[in-house]
Amino acid sequence: RGSGFGGSSGPSPPATPPDWARPPSGGSVTFVYPAEGGRTVHYLDGGYALLAVGPGEEPPAAAVSSSRPILAAAALPEGKIAVAGLDRILRVVLPGADRPGRWWLLDAGKVEVLAAASGGTLAWVAGDGIRVVADDGKTRARLPPAAERTLALAWQREAEWLFAADAAGRLRVFDRDLRKAWEATVHEDRAPALDVDPAGRWVATGGWDGRVRVREIGRWQNIVAELSPGFRVNAVRFSPSGARLAVAGWGDRVLVYDTRTWEPALSLAGPEGGTLSLGFGPEESWLAGGGVDGSIRVWQLSR
Known about the structure:
The protein has 303 residues and is an all-beta fold.
């Protein structure tokens, strides 16, 4: 098992500065996704648009606009992004495309948590539970709410498993037929961080207890790695190949672990005040972090 900094791996190396960064420009950044070889980052900051920004001096541009705040987004294959919020409209768009993409009018209130499977199936948290819709817009299921607020959702590959983590530190797992397959307390505090290895081997959770736990999918009690990054965790993100796991939270650094050894390979200088969101680009080498202070930082991990 990896231990993270402060454990067997010894003192942390100097933090690597970002290749480019943007200063705070709005509210906290809750979604961030680098594209186009790290030259563009799409992000949400609680405003009325999915924004796009680059390393230059140009102000952010609206990739998707709404009449009410957009609160949740999820990256899909082929560069598409799903967005939803207070206007009860779920949109799937390709930023920069001439046509606006698909959209659905939701029969629920605000959407604050959203997840997308590679086949296009979407899940989101509504006031009365979790809704699941297929890529044709038809509702597949309405899952009951957890006792505590659901903070994160994640799919395994082609919607084989759906994971939901909540404010009590519990993880719920639903199978392909959306029947509950497993549920347990996985953290001693709230668990806002959740991601699935793209190869479908592991699910990683991170909590405010300062721990990241990586479990083998299908063998839920088998903890592959338990990491101690040294801060309360807000975000975990596997790279597209699954070779790296980025971890961030209420600290001034973003840690990148090598999933072969579960030891930290990189320490990155994160946004001041902490990081809320992480996103790898499709090229694997670019990682973006969104700050509590509204700033964005982008690192090129390999050259």
